[in-house]
Amino acid sequence: MYTEAVSIVDHKIQVIESEKGIIYLVGPISLPVKLEDGEAIFQWYCWLLCKEKLDDAEQMIKKLSASNLAEMQQSSVLVYGDFAQAEEAWIRMHSICHTGDIFGSKRCDCGYQLHESMRMIVEKGAGALFYLANHEGRGIGLFSKAMAYLLQEQGYDTVEANVELGFADDARNYSDAIRVLNTLREKPVSLITNNPKKLDAMKMAGLDVINRIPLWGDRSAYNERYLDTKINRSGHLAASGCPNE
Questions:
Q1: pLDDT digits (tens, 9 = 90+) for 15-55
Q2: Could you say which of 9, 81, 83, 152 has the lowest number of CB atoms within 10 Å?
Q3: 154 found inside a domain
Q4: Single pTM value for the model
Q5: Is 172 part of the annotated catalytic residue set?
Q6: Residue 153 domain-assigned?
Q7: What does the pLDDT read at residue 56?
Q8: Distance between CA 12 and CA 46 in Å, rounded?
Q9: Residue 128 belongs to what H/E stretch?
């Protein structure tokens, strides 16, 4: 039944061991992407964490077609250029932001950072954007993030709202993303981030990083307190010219 599908996808699936199970990485898949100043061809990968190891692609197709993956979170990575072999490559570990990335919300700078980091990677010539689906609201999930927004409307900052709801300020984990990265590239990378804590967390997870690339912009009356909290409460490094530097 699955003979043709197996022949097509079998060589496009990589298996990566994880302490939480098995990571199945599918790709690359050519993905033309519209950027503000044109377009670029990325190579798209998607990964899925499973508790069990499946023997082959046919078994995987049979099992997954009977599962409701639309209710599960799966992460992606967009690879640009000769990511595996380029001497220099920039990466962005981007936490999904439903409101900012999809709806264009101005309460944060996430949508701007998503598209700007893609533009920066294309301009650099080689890199990868990791889109981490289980990192919504710094790891608390979309529903909890909505509740945190209600608290923020009553005067709480981002950190206070998460803590008041019983969460850590930042509950994100990068171990699986680093495993996928190490599968795609063995050489060091430069990380696009303003957050030294994120950089430290990824170094602890095994990231071989040689440089940090800042990413600030899209400051407005809607998100200025959010951005100030990143600097004053979460330890983000301010950009040159930022009033909180």
A1: 888 888 888 888 888 888 888 778 889 898 888 887 777 66
A2: 9
A3: no
A4: 0.79
A5: yes
A6: no
A7: 67
A8: 11
A9: strand 127-132
> In what order do the strands lie in the sheet containing 13-18?
13-18, 21-35, 38-50, 75-80, 127-132, 90-95, 189-192, 209-213
For residue 35, the one-letter residue type is: L
Confidence of residue 153 (pLDDT cuts 50, 70, 90): confident
- Determine which one of 101, 109, 157, 170 is catalytic: 170
Q: Catalytic pick from 138, 172, 179, 185?
A: 172
| Contact status, residue 205 vs residue 199, Cβ threshold 8 Å | no
CATH number assigned to the domain comprising residue 7: 3.40.50.10990
- The answer to whether 169 is a known catalytic residue is no
Answer with the residue of higher pLDDT: 230 or 21.
Answer: 21
Query: In angstroms, how far is CA 80 from the centroid of its own chain?
Result: 15
Query: Which residues make Cβ contacts (< 8 Å) with residue 234, sequence separation at least 6?
Result: 158, 159, 169, 170, 195, 197
